[in-house]
Amino acid sequence: MEFYFALATLFGFRILLGLSAYVVILTGQISMAQAGFYALGAYTAGAATALWGWPIVPAVLLGAIVGAVFGFLVGFPALRVRGLFLVIATLAFTEIVRMVFLNLKYTIRVGDRTIGPAAAEGFRGITYYFENGWSSLQIAGFTWLFVLAVLLAFWLMDRSRAGVVLRAVGEDELAASSVGINLTAAKVSAMTLGGLVAGLAGALYAHYATYLSQEEFGVLLASFAVAYPLIGGTGSVLGPIAGVLFFSLLIDGLRFLGDWRNLLFGVLIVAMMNVRPHGIIDVRLVRRLAALLRPAPKRAYAGD
Amino acid sequence: MLAIERLSKQFGGVKAVQHVDLDVRQNEILGLIGPNGSGKSTIVNLVTGVFPPTEGRVRFKDGDITGWPPHRVLAAGVGRTFQSIRLFGGLTVWQNLWVAQNAQSEGGRGVLRRWLAVDRASMTKIEATLEFCRLLDKKDELASNLAFGDQRRLELARTLAAEPDLLLLDEPAAGMNAAEIEDLRERLLALKRRGKTIVLIEHHMELVMTVAERVAVLNFGQKIAEGRPAAVQDDERVREAYLGQRR
């Protein structure tokens, strides 16, 4: 059972990370900065409980807010570049964050233990869950409380005009601005919201992992963050979840193949992009599912 | 209503628009014609702030809107359509209009209403606009699934949803068949009756000559003629621009 609770918790972080990239992708931007926001959230929340003795809930919220603040700040320069240039620019941000944590030394001694970010040695001693005797079930439940809250918020956003406006910006920026959409506001909002959710994911992750090392928060994590919604589809919030399931099942489910796994992993991603270029759950699939769930509209067809 | 003064735009060495003066009067339909590449769309892009002019001013309702970003130009009351159709293909027909429905905010209490659920009043307005453009039965279709003529209609409907006072229509009849053009003519005249002012950029001469009260002609980025349709048609320089010099 422990294994499944741990797995559910891990899935929770990945889904949150995927959702943070999802909201940015809606506006047509591919951001590699999500890993940077995740790292900032993780280190901040970790420091809050381990160094400053904060309770877990405010610490996690602080991590999310720090992610949002950096999302807001990255949003403005990111407006000037798009496409591949935005990918490079945001990747640079993630690398800068990583380099800062590689050099950040801010530790305290508690008894015979050193706690806090110790530069290249990593951040040890984020033991809030352990100290408070949380079970795996409690950790999974706490994590999923946030996952469900974000899912619900995004699901509602997708139905609101705000969500439709973000999609409109992603479809055609010039057309959106010509019907009155402030592109700066739309893109910076999406980036801020993405930073908030990535920061939240990082904050939760820090307490699960208990130890943070900057090398976890690099290109690979940034790539997975955008791959979840891209492969899973951006038709609905279910897309990033589908993406997480796809990757996680591939990574863990194909272990029996040994070295062949990496090869098949790549082949499956390429195949997936060909079969469903807009992701597993795209706009059209969402519409078809919605039509199935809705009672059939009564229409009078003349002739045919 | 709209006053363009010595407007110029240079792209590198290319003078796309050179010192063009143009006055659009309240509630008129002004035809803007000229051969391909004469700078018609560039003028629309300059007025709506897609790019800033190299020189000159744009005034709208006594305010200077030169160089304003597109969303502020729209909020001031200038709407436009695109020559190449630019719809939000992944959104449904009515959602395309919902996005545009933002200029008419009603103060602070409207914030939640504007950004959250679609309320009855907005939906009624959207449906009325769709009905006017004969798209009501396609309300829930994806915009990208529409036939070409319907996509052109949706471009117009989306701009109308933003409730601008001045409409800059960039070749709204391009690619339409005769029946669709006839329908468009009716829509344009109906809009005029509703008090809208329209600048109609069009290659379809028959349409321009029958709906426009005045016509301005561009050639190589310069205005070469302006006046009543019949007078412009007889203008020697206009004939030269379209047909070439008489030998």
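qc> Chain A has one domain: 2-218.
qc> done
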